[in-house]
Amino acid sequence: MNCLLCGKEMKKGGIIVSGRTIMALEWYPAIEFNKRGLKSWNRTDGKELLDEACLFGSKFEDAFYCEHCNKVIGLFNVRKESES
Ligand SMILES: [Zn+2]
To answer: How far apart (Å, rounded) are the C-alpha atoms in residues 63 and 73?
Structure first.
């Protein structure tokens, strides 16, 4: 996969989520994401990331690293509205 920012080849990899606390990963539109604090109940339009890898002690595939930009881009599945 090529970097969305610079177009160069990215290194395929994954993200390991470690720790004992269950975590939820959610994507938010920028206007919601930029609100102060981390509380999800202050935000709307969140997309819960589906992969079990988002739970504790887990591994998440499909993350790509761009050496040039020093960024990681992940491909997360989104839970459909009807499943939640
Ligand atoms: Zn890049």
So the answer is: 6
| Predicted TM-score (pTM) of this structure | 0.61
Distance 3 CA to ligand 1 centre (A): 5
Q: How far apart are CA 16 and CA 26, in angstroms?
A: 16
How much distance in Å is there from the Cα of 5 to the middle of ligand 1? Answer: 5
* pLDDT tens-digit series, residues 27-52: 788 888 888 877 777 788 877 766 55
Ligand 1 centroid to Cα of residue 47, in Å, is 25
Listed by start position, the domains of the chain span 11-83
> Which residues are CB-neighbours of 31 under 8 A, at least 6 positions away?
none
